[in-house]
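User: Okay, second chain of the day. Same drill as before: sequence in, structure tokens out.
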Amino acid sequence: MRGILRLLLTIVMDLLLVAAALVFARIVIAFFGHVSSAAWAKQFMDYTKLLVHSFGLGHMKTPYGGVFDYNAGAVLGVVLVAEWAVAFARRFVR
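Assistant: Same drill. Structure tokens below.
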């Protein structure tokens, strides 16, 4: 039973890391305006829009023609803290 719980916690950790990587890629693409104007980048931004919750934090213009989305940054922080918490809990399942 503990082996299954440990496996499930590992899967949750992996999913959270994938979500963090996608949100981070979204932040980088939006940061550089010339990259976000590409067709593939627009499609990626549309797909990852579901991952970013609106906390009402807004955004800041960058010198590269893009924006830094504070909401995406907050989501990235929350996801990484959640992954850390699951990893911490997984240590006690032996």
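The two ends are 10 Å apart (CA to CA).

User: Thanks, on to the next one.
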